[in-house]
Amino acid sequence: MAKLKLGPITDNKPVKVTVELPASLHRDLVDYAQVLGRETGKAGLDPAKLIAPMIERFMATDRGFAKARRTTTGGGSGGGL
Questions:
Q1: Among 29, 31, 33, 80, which residue carries the largest CB count within 10 Å?
Q2: What pLDDT sits at residue 42?
Q3: What region, left, alpha or beta, does residue 63 occupy, with left being phi > 0 and alpha being psi -120 to 50 degrees?
Q4: Structural contact between residues 47 and 55, judged by C-beta atoms closer than 8 angstroms
Q5: SS3 sequence, the chain?
């Protein structure tokens, strides 16, 4: 089994955002959704549902962002820079 950075996708109240992706990135999202679906037992996972958790994961592991956020906002979450 592959060790993916994303775990199961949870439902959360969404905010609608429109994003244009390169076709190659969309194909990669489709492939990732298929692999994640196999690993979590949720076949037919919508690739668009991966975008928010991927961005969350990216930001959570970005040390530069975490440091900048701490110095700018005092360490709270949900605040802007």
A1: 33
A2: 87
A3: alpha
A4: no
A5: CCCCCCCCCCCCCCCCCCCCCCHHHHHHHHHHHHHHHHHHCCCCCCHHHHHHHHHHHHHHCCHHHHHHHHHHHCCCCCCCC
